[in-house]
Structure of Flavodoxin family protein:
Amino acid sequence: MNVLGISGSMQPNGNTAYLVKKILEAATEANAEATCEFVSLGGHHIYPCTGCLQCREKKECVITNDDWGKVAEKVVECDVLVIGTPVYYYDVCGQMKNFIDRTYSLWHDRKLSGKYVVTVAVNGDCGADRALETLEGFANAHEFIYAGSVTGKAFLPGDIANDKAALEAADKIGQKIATLG
Ligand SMILES: Cc1cc2nc3c(=O)[nH]c(=O)nc-3n(C[C@H](O)[C@H](O)[C@H](O)COP(=O)(O)O)c2cc1C
């Protein structure tokens, strides 16, 4: 079973990355056969979808001069996607939205249908619910099988390590992932 964890934060070692990695660690601990990979969208160039609609015919995105394709390849290959975002203005951050919009090219043939998804949102204070709704909208459109969600409360870098409830939830969902597939 391939588990792919993605953090949409531009901070490669930020709070979202920490929580997503905790989930992967728990999955690996509970199932030695689970292959877990973590990808931070921070440091990757992901241009916005231009809405050209060429992917409806070509079944692939015509923007090829950025890093989206290599991340998308990993998403297509995984069995379980753990997708996490920091909350920006009560929603997903821009980098995550760019990533989501570009998956339109995978939607036409439902290339992600039947995979499991776990959604993760980290906010300083509020807005995680709406960010999770956005991630769930992405997941539902692609026909993922929803396997749960985790929210974290953290503002400054590293604060997430103090959110015991989030760490416990991450551990629990990681163990659940280990039983999937
Ligand atoms: C541009 C921006 C917008 C933000 N908007 C919100 C918000 O609406 N609600 C909130 O609780 N925290 C908000 N925050 C705080 C982040 O969600 C918080 O710092 C989070 O831990 C960052 O995660 P990261 O370390 O993975 O990037 C915002 C931060 C930034 C930089």
About this structure: The chain has a mean pLDDT of 97. Residues 2 and 35 are 5 Å apart (CA to CA).
